Amino acid sequence: MDAEQLRENAHKMVDFIADYYKNLEDFPVLSQVKPGYLSELLPDSAPRQPESLQDILDDVQQKIIPGVTHWQSPNYFAYYPSNSSIAGFLGEMLSAGFNIVGFSWITSPAATELVVVVLDWVAKMLKLPNQFLSSGLGGGVIQGTASEAVLVALLAARDKILRRVGKEYLNKLIVYASDQAHSALQKACQIAGIYSENFRLLKAEQSSNYELVPEVLSEAISIDFSSGLIPFFLCATVGTTSSAAVDPLCALGKIAKASDMWFHVDAAYAGSACICPEFRHHLDGVEEADSFGMNAHKWLLTNFDCSLLWVKDRNALIQSLSTNPEFLKNKASQENAVVDFKDWQIPLGRRFRSLKLWMVLRMYGQENLQNYIRNHINLAKQFEQLVKSDSRFEVMAPRTFSLVCFRLVPPPNHQDNGYKLNYSLMDAINTSGKIFLSHTVLSGKFVLRLAVGAPLTEEKHVEAAWKVLQNHATTLLGNI
């Protein structure tokens, strides 16, 4: 494809995407197709001859879009957001056009150095300690997801402790987290060879707003030490998946330090909110952390995937993850004059992800990004008040950011304490295609989650979502 063909086809693609966004509200938010639908619509082998872009786009419209759940819809309130933006699009387009594989500095110096620049920018926006900046012993790196970030942190911590106590003690290493921590930590333990019985998920209670209580952690560590085990890794969360709870970083960090443990802070969702001065206090205590992660692709208008990880000691990552085969050796690397991010991650290859984050930060600016976050939090506050205004519903956890956890109150002596009732409410709403919600279970109760975070969501969409909920609740309660 020459430059003119690129121009022609790219214009068609941009028009298609622009029309998609223009008509986004017309689609059911949750895809309504049945499993296996696509194999019935597409040929069972690839075409022998080329087909036109227009024919392909026609198939996208007729066959692919029906099977898409529309994460960017203003009526999408499930899970946590996965933001896109024009700036993010343009950065992805440029990255795809360059199509570099930036594992080492020499493979494309800008791809490495732009990571260093933008991660320092964001660290300063978050007011992270200076130890996380590239000017010191630490620094930041873009991973694919928070799951990768916690894995590389865990591997660095594992190898650091094993260098001290000996590899034969792997079976004694203990990992701690709240039972509200993301399941990515469990997977990281499985990959890292941490014994399943050595993975401690400490119960977080409703009485503590589902935060990890420091005394519970201290007691667990004490028991393990007395049993001859080796506590070595603690993961705290700022904005848990279930309820957006915030673990007390100061107290937990001091416990980890006293026990000589690696302290990782996972702020995948809520980290973005902390660029606003009024929410920055949720990161108080991050100075005790060895590593800190947040997803720019969740709530900072940067297209997936773009997970930011900072460490205080980059050598801990490098010692755990570095390889240096002959075919990768070069003068700049051998002289230790540059950063090679291949040694800070699991895969060798790296996409030029920093371009899209750089473009988002420049095209929006800090003030607009802060106001974007504030708007979503205000919309969540409004929804929370709507829930509280209807005695048929109850809020199930404190609203800290833009997530509201609530449920339909079951009638007295209702079987299963409203589990089936609220599941049925969620299922009816999602099947309608008007909005999309997800759920969690808190203290044994089935809880609906409404997360405000889609870029196009406005007050009218939140109000419409509430009316949908009320109408379906009326129908369900009338049938009891």
Key terms for this structure?
Aspartate Aminotransferase, domain 2; 2 domains; dopa decarboxylase, N-terminal domain; four-stranded antiparallel sheet; globular; repeat; single chain
Write structural notes for this entry.
It is a single chain. The protein is an alpha/beta fold and 480 residues long. The protein folds into 2 domains: 68 residues, dopa decarboxylase, N-terminal domain (Up-down Bundle), CATH 1.20.1340.10; 270 residues, 3-Layer(aba) Sandwich (Aspartate Aminotransferase, domain 2), CATH 3.40.640. The chain is built from 14 helices and 11 strands. A 7-stranded mixed β-sheet has the order 1-7-6-5-4-2-3, with helices on both faces. Helix 3 packs antiparallel against helix 12, helix 12 crosses helix 14 and helix 13 packs across helix 14. The model has no long low-confidence stretch (mean pLDDT 94).
Stretches with pLDDT under 50, minimum 5 residues = none
- The CATH class name of the largest domain reads Alpha Beta
- Summarize the biggest pleated sheet: 7 strands, mixed
Order of helices and strands: HHHHEHEHEHEHEEHEHHHEEHEEH
Number of domains: 2
Overall, the morphology is globular
Per-chain topology:
Elements: H1 3-22, H2 53-64, H3 86-98, H4 109-125, E1 139-143, H5 146-165, E2 173-178, H6 184-192, E3 199-202, H7 214-226, E4 230-237, H8 249-258, E5 262-266, E6 291-295, H9 296-299, E7 307-311, H10 314-321, H11 331-334, H12 354-388, E8 393-395, E9 403-408, H13 419-432, E10 438-442, E11 445-451, H14 459-478
Parallel strand pairs: 2-3, 2-4, 4-5, 5-6
Antiparallel strand pairs: 1-7, 6-7, 8-9, 9-11, 10-11
Helix pairs in contact: 3-12, 4-12, 5-6, 5-10, 12-14, 13-14
